[in-house]
């Protein structure tokens, strides 16, 4: 969720919000022996996990590498029927044409993670607003503006990282940042982490890259805890936070109301540092070399 401040509920804007359109994907997976497996899904992340764990995945991927299979191509389709047609067409392609699809997809989606600047405000607002309109991941009803996000980025960067993930042609595919958890002094070593990947880019490993960098940078600054507040029904984010090493701490029942239903929120906590010794003050500014040392690990 976001730490952005909200005005009170605005029913007319809430009515304008729409549940997320159903997604449908065709995809190719690369097996360790070089072969490509094609399929379709309405949840890319969950399907990838099924292939990798062998629980509910395909026989082919189970016997051709299981945990080592990697996403080689993903294409979003209008709906299930379009995805099924496209899957059949892709499966009929000669291997060379499948390889060409995979090469182009890899080139188009070579994402670089860097520190944001206020000039990223418009792109970040656009990505976030998709979730404002279509999702319960954020409890915000009102659309954010580019100016608000430019100011938000500048504000965050005074104390913590604000990372953006950009394609070679300059498209924003995700962002991750952290805000102070509470304003009272004793909380100074805690942050709330926030992450959003573009709807077309979930389940492809980007969230892990962004959070890995974010958490490492926060640790280097001297923060002790990262918290995340996740909507009860946001299964992908619960799985994600669990996989990233967060521990579920407590549930706030009926904490928000959106799309005509009450929603719980779940608190997750990640210890960046441990120990009972008095903490050093947090370093709000890392050196350029320190930032590069972390970012180059996720930009390989
Ligand atoms: C939650 C979110 C940030 C995760 O990022 P992502 O790029 O989709 O996740 P990744 O592909 O990097 O997956 C990282 C791990 O989480 C697991 N995971 C992610 N989504 C999952 C899902 N839907 N089902 C099961 N596991 C999932 C992956 O299997 C992977 O595990 P591994 O390290 O064992 O391979 C992304 O889905 C997103 O932006 N969702 C919409 C916005 C949102 O909910 N933000 C969080 C608000 S609290």
Question: What are the SSEs and their pairings?
Answer:
Blueprint: H1 11-16, E1 24-30, E2 36-41, H2 44-53, H3 59-63, E3 70-77, H4 80-92, H5 95-108, E4 112-115, H6 121-134, H7 146-157, E5 162-166, E6 172-180, E7 190-197, H8 206-221, E8 225-231, H9 235-243, E9 247-258, E10 261-271, H10 288-298
Parallel strand pairs: 7-8
Antiparallel strand pairs: 1-2, 1-3, 4-5, 5-6, 6-7, 8-10, 9-10
This protein binds coenzyme A.
Coenzyme A (COA) is lined by residues 1, 43, 45-46, 49, 131, 137, 195-197, 202-208, 228, 230, 234, 236-237, 239-240, 243.
What can you see in these coordinates?
- With 300 residues, this protein is α+β, with helices and mostly antiparallel strands.
- The protein folds into two domains: 85 residues, GIY-YIG endonuclease (3-Layer(aba) Sandwich), CATH 3.40.1440; 188 residues, Gcn5-related N-acetyltransferase (GNAT) (Aminopeptidase, 3-Layer(aba) Sandwich), CATH 3.40.630.30.
- Helices cover 37% and strands 26% of the residues.
- The N terminus is likely disordered.
- The structure holds coenzyme A.
- Coenzyme A binds next to helix 2, strand 7, helix 8, strand 8 and helix 9.
